[in-house]
Amino acid sequence: MKVSYQWLNKYLPLAQNKIKPAALAEKLARTSVDINAVYSPSDGLKKIIVGYVEECVPHPDSDHMSVCQVKISDDETIQIVCGAPNVQAGKKVIVALHGARIADNVKIKRGKIRGEESDGMLCALQEIGFSEKVAPKDYEDGIWFLPDDAKIGESVFPYLGMDDTIVDTDVTPNRGDMLSIYGNVNDLAAIYDLPNGFESHAVKENDDAKAADLISAEVADDQMAPVYKLRVIKNVQIADSPMWLQIRLWNSGIRPINNVVDITNYILLKYGQPLHSFDYDKLPSHKILVRHANEDETMTTLDGEEQTLKAQDIVVTAGDQPVALAGTMGGESTKVDDQTTNVVLESAIFDPVMVRKQARRLDLHSESSMRFERGINPETVERALDEAAYWLQKLANGQVTKGIVVGHDQQYPAHEITLSLQKVKHVLGIDIDMEQVKAIFDRLAFETTQKDEDTLVVNVPARRWDISLPADLYEEIARLYGYDNIPSTLPVMTRNWGGLTTRQKKLRASRHVLEGMGLNQAISYSLTTVDKAKQFGVTPSTTEPMKLDYPMSSDHVATRMSIISGLLNDIAYNEARKVSNVALYEQGRVFIPKGGERPEEQEHVAGAITGSLVADSWNQKARPVDFYQIKGIVEQYLDNLAVAGTITFVADQSRPEMHPGRTANILLDGEVIGFIGEVHPNVAKEYKISETYVFEINLEAVLAADVRDKHYQHISKYPEITRDIALLVDDTVTNDEVVAIIKRRGGAFLKHIHLFDVYTGVHLPKGKKSLAYTLTYQDDQGTLKEETVNQAFAKIEKHLTEELGAEIR
Fold first, then answer.
1. d(Cα 517, Cα 512) in Å, to the nearest integer?
2. How many domains does the chain contain in total?
3. What pTM was computed for the model?
4. 476 is in an annotated binding site
5. Is 515 annotated as a binding residue?
6. pLDDT in tens, 707-765
7. Of 100, 110, 8, whose CA–CA distance to 45 is shortest?
8. How many CA atoms does the CB half-sphere of 631 hold within 13 Å?
9. Residues spanned by the domain of 451
10. Are residues 698 and 771 in the same domain?
11. Are 579 and 677 found together in one domain?
């Protein structure tokens, strides 16, 4: 809420006690609510004064400009060229002199406009910092006219309220009482221990007619409107509000409209009580009913939009025709305009949950709905209604009819809470006596009754609906006692050695490994759609994911059972912004339903790569990622984690989201722990991404697996001997089968096996392929002899021929 320092100072002796706005804001931040900003509307502006237009003639070389002679002091008149359509002689205006600074730090300079000298600028409100939302509509396209009593040559700031200081507070949901000047005055009076001079105005009814004879009110369900009251004011005269009232509104961020609407907004700011004004003569019936809307019932709101209502919405009806969305926005058909003569004022308390739901669903959040959602002070519902009627008498010459029409009323008695002084001392950790506690509650205007030396009964007024427990009163004592005055003590605790657990170390190392191989970490939502939650399971399943009862959007309704879908969304986001090379990984939890109340949470790691891992360079071309690159990343990842078991890759076609010919399961000692492969082209098209390769591993299986002992390997100083071997084998023979035989029969000195060529073509028999390997032999203890290598090599040739039917080429 934008709180005016001058308005506060009207009720509290702030300036008299030398409490400056910045200090006041800091005190509020330490004690009550957060502060967004402290500023003056005149900040950054200078040399902007009151001027008087003595003469205004058309510009000789323009059809829309005027040349004005503007008096800026008793003995000085300057010429200013102005393009505003409403400029005229005889008006006092806002003048930015040569060298002035206006909004957005624009500097005004002397110059010529189409050949005519211009010594400054005549300003609209928007040009000196007013936002479009608060500048009065009558002056939207023109300059602002100052009141006739404004003194020529003086600063314009006092006449526009720009010499005020605004404290912009950020009110938390529990402190709805601070969304009013009344609430701020009460709190600051308690904080600074100042006399509370808040002033209300009582209305004197001056029309013989009874309101109950003119209108009736009824509430269909007490819960939706615990309090609902109406007043009727006759013969109002619609006009602009006086400047003091317009200043109060626009300094609070509200646009002045007319005196009737402005008075309701003024009361909203002063008391935190939203009011609504109906044109009495436009009401289709004078029987007012508050009820739930009918399903798909429609009405047009004040913003000109037709709203389709739901059965849970609350409406105010006249003759069963909706004329307002209760607590949210009025209807266009009964709005107050220039022809209005009779007004119905509404003051109520509406159910906060119902108001919030309908405001959120219809996207109609307003100053009124915000206050209804956070709570209304029941003590001021009627008080605010009466003061609004008072101002309609004063500013619109209205005649207030006798009585208030009550649709429903409810008593909100003070709430009694019993406190123990010893408990207060124990919880707050301070040495405080009973008199100090009672003094704090006196400052808050909470009545107290002392039962004995340790017991105090506190009557919490209804205006502080956020207080219901002793703990709430402890907080009130602490904040007025002063948080800075509470002694600092270290917590009592045992001392243990810090550090990461073994699991935490492995999870951190896991991320480092993937980052070292060029993948960037991504963090995606754990919630997704039901269809995406079912995709890319490490263990394919038809089980339904866990669904949320109240999802925040249609894209976040179920918990994920795989990480890959989130990574594909990230790739789609990047590709949509012309980023073609993307390599991402994510490590996090997935949620696998197991039939119980809660799903099983598993730690998974997944990666997704599209484009190229290495960009084009002068000495090499970029190569699109393929199955073998991502397989190599997974192999290196598992190797770095020192997994001791046997890792194998087996072709798989069971996942419809994956390419059937380019997908493999990852097995650890024969158990599936993950998979790798290409995303199916049809699925890639759905995600709007290019060819993409992915992997996902269940880290729980990896973390539970045995690990290799950590040891170093001595680098042999003796020379290597290499042998090449080319085999002609059946197409069905895999590389793994060949390598397994070579390892098993290669002897103790075989160090490395490298596949350097695969060939299939017209020069080979049908159903055959050629595989070529380089075998590396080395002895760590001495130089190998040729005969030793030849014997081992011959043994390999023999077993390849016998076991695989290979033909040595």
1. 9
2. 6
3. 0.68
4. yes
5. no
6. 888 767 778 889 999 999 999 999 989 888 999 999 999 998 999 999 999 998 888 88
7. 100
8. 16
9. 416-485
10. no
11. yes
